TrEMBL record:
A Pfam family recorded for this sequence: AA9
Protein's name according to its UniProt entry: AA9 family lytic polysaccharide monooxygenase
Enzyme class per UniProt: oxidoreductase
Entry remark concerning the domains of this protein: Has a modular structure: an endo-beta-1,4-glucanase catalytic module at the N-terminus, a linker rich in serines and threonines, and a C-terminal carbohydrate-binding module (CBM).
Listed InterPro entries: AA9 (IPR049892), AA9_LPMO (IPR005103)
One Gene Ontology molecular-function label: cellulase activity
Biased composition (Low complexity): 260-277
Organism placement in taxonomy: Eukaryota, Fungi, Dikarya, Ascomycota, Pezizomycotina
Catalyzed chemical reaction(s): [(1->4)-beta-D-glucosyl]n+m + reduced acceptor + O2 = 4-dehydro-beta-D-glucosyl-[(1->4)-beta-D-glucosyl]n-1 + [(1->4)-beta-D-glucosyl]m + acceptor + H2O
Keywords, in A-Z order: Carbohydrate metabolism, Cellulose degradation, Disulfide bond, Polysaccharide degradation, Secreted, Signal
Natural source organism: Clathrospora elynae
Extent of the signal sequence: 1-20
Length: 312
């Protein structure tokens, strides 16, 4: 009996760690989630994050494997998803996890020279989706972020993305330990084949991975610990990409390709669908309140985890 309850207590104390860590293991296309389009990582524990210090496996944001995760840079997924430009997709977290570390989420794409399956991600990447702090007055350790407690990053393949095969890299950054240089990066790549795009590849705001982030970037060197605050409006990395109008036949005025301001500012009409505030559960406020009770727990959890990590 004693043994059993001790074991249960131990298990309970480990659970939050597991559910607060995560990895992307499915791509949702037309409402159907499949692991076939995601490159699996080969970490001993799939949900561990990448960091600059106190790493779990010597991979850092400066490593080549920062593209698609450990072991997934040169190994293709089982399959490549056929999608249309303008489609809403999502990448979901494995083992029932939710994003219960505070921080932003972003989605990048990079066009494969041949097939997505054969591509190592060494080319240019552009950002197609950004979620940051939507409730700057709320708890920056929890509900201030649009990602808080979600099990997926939902995004739209912009209408302007030209046809071809791409890697799509979704990422969430846990900032609970970021004040001490220990931002945690969770990310993975899906393979897609895009048709119906009506623009051309972006020529600005392109990045390489690794190289997209620096330790000193204010978006990754950020403290969630001292009360409400604001977060840099573009989010980590480059601005959202804009797509050239490759074949604007005719008179239709082009009301689109303006860089979409990230959360916080009123969205302009743009092919890049913008983040959480409008999707799903309406305003961040209602959402935030609904989650408040359980967030006490979330807050503690995060704190305990941050402490655990700073001991390392
Ligand atoms: C992170 O920010 C703190 C406080 O502003 C600063 O002291 C520290 O040098 C920064 N770290 C890096 C790596 O730039
Ligand atoms: C591209 O397609 C989108 C969505 O169908 C449309 O809103 C936009 O006007 C189109 N742009 C051009 C240049 O054709």
């Amino acid at each position: 009996m004693m043994y059993q309850s001790a074991a249960l207590a131990l298990l309970a104390s480990m659970m939050p760690m597991a559910s607060a860590h995560y990895f992307f293991d499915k791509l949702v296309v037309n409402g159907k989630a499949s692991p076939d389009f995601i490159r699996a990582n080969t970490r001993p524990i799939a949900y561990m994050p990448t960091k600059w210090i106190n790493t779990f496996d010597n991979t850092t944001p400066d490593s080549t494997d920062f593209r698609c995760n450990v072991g997934a840079t040169n190994v293709g997924a089982k399959n490549t998803a056929k999608v249309n430009a303008g489609d809403e997709l999502a990448m979901t977290l494995g083992v029932g996890a939710k994003m219960e570390h505070p921080g932003p989420a972003q989605v990048y794409m990079s066009k494969a020279p041949t097939t997505a399956g054969a591509y190592d991600g060494s080319g240019d990447w552009f950002k197609i989706h950004q979620e940051t702090m939507v409730n700057p007055g709320a708890d920056p350790k929890t509900v201030a972020w649009s990602t808080w407690s979600k099990d997926r990053v939902t995004f739209t393949i912009p209408a302007g993305v030209p046809d071809g095969e791409y890697l799509v890299r979704a990422e969430h950054i846990g900032l609970h330990g970021a004040h001490g240089g220990q931002a945690e990066f969770y990310y993975g790549c899906a393979q897609v084949s895009v048709s119906g795009g009506n623009g051309s590849l972006p020529t600005a705001d392109l990045v390489k991975i690794p190289g997209v982030y620096k330790k000193a970037d204010p978006e990754v060197n950020f403290s969630v610990w001292s009360g409400p605050k604001t977060y840099p409006v573009n989010g980590p990395g480059p601005k959202l990409a804009t797509f050239g109008t490759a074949s604007v036949g005719g008179s239709e005025p082009v009301d689109a390709p303006v860089a979409t301001p990230v959360s916080g500012t009123a969205p302009v009409s743009s092919p890049v669908s913008s983040p959480a505030p409008q999707t799903g559960s309406g305003s961040g406020n209602g959402n935030g309140e609904a989650h408040n009770a359980e967030n006490c727990k979330g807050g503690k959890k995060t704190r305990r985890h941050a402490r655990d990590i700073s001991k390392n």
